[in-house]
Amino acid sequence: MEAIAAGESLASVREALKARERRRGDLTAKLEHLDGLAKMPRLNPAALTDELRDRLTDWQGLLTAEPVKARQVLRKILVGRLVFHPDPDRGLYTFEGKASYGKLVAGTVLQNVWCPRGDSNTRHAV
Hints:
It is a single chain. The chain is of the alpha+beta class. Helix content is about 50%, strand content about 15%. It has helices at about 1-5, 10-40, 45-65, 65-75, and strands at about 80-85, 90-100. Helix 3 crosses helix 4. The longest helix is centred in the N-terminal third of the chain and has 30 residues, at about 10-40. The two termini are about 40 Å apart. The mean pLDDT is about 80.
């Protein structure tokens, strides 16, 4: 209204309105994104560590109790061979190798909050 009263052209007023609408849309999208982040549950490192230890214990129990299944699992996750190194001083072997966990940890991401497209604009992510 001030621009019209000051005698500015209608085209410049229209462009200023469009620029403000774009800015308003950007700010609204940012607010929606921040609202989504605020609703995300906070990670509890101690609880996460406990959960991972429990899962590891389950895996160790499975591998010990079911050697046939254990070999199948190891074949699926190992990349290449395991290399064993004797340690005569301690009377044991150490080993090393590479593993690919693939979908072993699938389902640990909170699907209700995460935007799978990697798009920070949450207005269209449904």
